[in-house]
Design goal:
single chain, mainly alpha, Arc Repressor Mutant, subunit A, 2 domains, three-stranded antiparallel sheet, MarR family transcriptional regulator
C-alpha cells in the first residue's frame, strides 16, 4: 500500500498525468493479455495503438481480436466513480470470513480472486485498477496496476502463496510506474528547456506534444499531422535526436524509427544513462502552453471514448 500510495500521490500532482495515464493503459492492457496467455508484449500493444510498425518485430499472430476490448476499458477508466464497488462487479460477491479484520488491499484481492473464478476472460485483471479506486484505496485509477494470477481459477482451499505473489506484483508495478513517471517528467522538462533555448524552434514544440501521445515516431507520421514534406519531417526528427530529445532505434538509413528516451528505457531498447543525473531543467512557458493544449485534447479524446462506450452499451 505504501508503494501504491506514493504513485497515487505523485500522479495527483504531476503535470504529465494525462500522458502517463495513456502509457500506463498500454502497460496494463499488455499485462492482461499476457495473463490470458497471449504472446503479446508491451511494445506490440504500443505499436498497434500508435499505428507505427516496429522494425524487426514479427506481426502479432493470434486468434480473435486481442486489442478489441481496449477502447471500452480505457473509457471506463475515466468514467465516474460515484457507485459502490459492489455495484460495479458483474456477479454476487459473498463476504468471506474475516472480511472486517482483513487489510483493505487483501479485501480487493479477495474480490479479484472471486471474479477470476466467475469470468475466464481478461476482464477481472483489467478491472482491478478501477476496483482499487472504488474501494477508496486510491484516489486515481492507475492502469499500470493490472495484475492477476491464472492459477486462481483452478485452486481450491488456501491461497496464501498466490496472495503473496500478487502483493509482490503490485509493489513492483507501483515502483515501476513511479520510475516511469519520473522519467516522463524529466523528459518534459528537458524538452521544454531545449525548445526555450532555440532561436527558431519551428515545429519542435508540436513534436514534443505529439511525442507524449505517440512515443514511437516515423517521418510519415509527421507529414499529415504537421502538413510538412517527408523530407522536412525526417529533418525535424533528426534535429530532435541530435538534441537528445528522441533516440533513433531502427538502425536504418531510411524510414528511421525514433522513440522518446523514457519509453525506450522502460522497454529495454535504449540503454539507461549512467553516472550522476543532470540537474533538472527550468520550465519553459512556451512548452507549458503547448502541453496545456495537449491536456485539453486528451480530455476531449477521453470524452469521445466515454460516449462511444456508452452508445455501445446501450446498443
Amino acid at each position: 500500500m505504501a508503494s501504491i500510495a506514493r504513485l497515487d500521490a505523485r500522479i495527483s500532482a504531476s503535470s504529465v498525468a494525462p500522458a502517463w495515464m495513456l502509457r500506463a493503459s498500454w502497460t496494463g492492457y499488455a499485462t492482461a493479455l499476457r495473463l490470458q496467455q497471449h504472446e503479446i508484449e508491451e511494445i506490440d500493444v504500443i505499436s498497434h495503438f500508435t499505428g507505427v510498425l516496429i522494425p524487426g518485430r514479427p506481426p502479432v499472430a493470434t486468434a480473435g481480436d486481442p486489442f478489441g476490448g481496449y477502447a471500452d476499458w480505457a473509457a471506463d477508466l475515466v468514467a465516474g466513480h460515484d457507485r459502490h464497488w459492489r455495484e460495479d462487479i458483474p456477479f454476487t460477491f459473498d463476504i468471506p470470513d474475516g472480511w472486517r479484520d482483513a487489510p483493505p488491499l487483501a479485501r480487493a484481492l479477495a474480490v479479484l480472486d472471486s471474479w477470476s473464478r466467475q469470468d475466464n476472460t481478461h476482464a477481472p485483471w483489467l478491472a482491478f485498477p478501477k476496483l482499487l479506486r472504488l474501494m477508496k484505496l486510491t484516489r486515481n485509477t492507475l492502469p499500470c496496476l493490472v495484475t492477476g494470477d491464472p492459477g486462481l481459477r483452478f485452486l481450491h482451499g488456501t491461497r496464501e502463496a498466490q496472495l503473496k505473489r500478487l502483493l509482490k506484483s503490485l509493489r513492483k508495478l507501483s515502483d515501476d510506474g513511479l520510475r516511469r513517471l519520473g522519467r516522463l517528467e524529466n523528459y518534459r522538462m528537458r524538452y521544454g528547456a531545449a525548445v526555450g533555448a532555440e532561436h527558431r524552434p519551428g515545429h519542435l514544440p508540436r513534436l514534443g506534444t505529439l511525442a507524449l501521445e505517440t512515443p514511437f515516431l516515423v517521418a510519415r507520421t509527421l507529414v499529415d499531422r504537421f502538413d510538412i514534406t517527408l523530407s522536412g519531417a525526417g529533418k525535424l526528427l533528426s534535429r530532435a535526436a541530435e538534441k537528445g530529445l528522441l533516440v533513433e532505434t531502427s538502425g536504418r538509413t531510411s524510414w528511421r524509427l525514433y522513440v522518446t528516451p523514457d519509453l525506450g528505457i522502460a522497454l529495454g531498447i535504449v540503454a539507461p544513462p549512467r553516472g550522476r543525473p543532470p540537474s533538472p531543467s527550468r520550465s519553459s512557458p512556451a512548452l507549458d502552453t503547448v502541453l496545456a493544449k495537449f491536456d485539453i485534447e486528451m480530455a476531449e479524446i477521453d470524452r469521445m471514448l466515454s460516449d462511444h462506450s456508452r452508445k455501445h452499451t446501450e446498443a
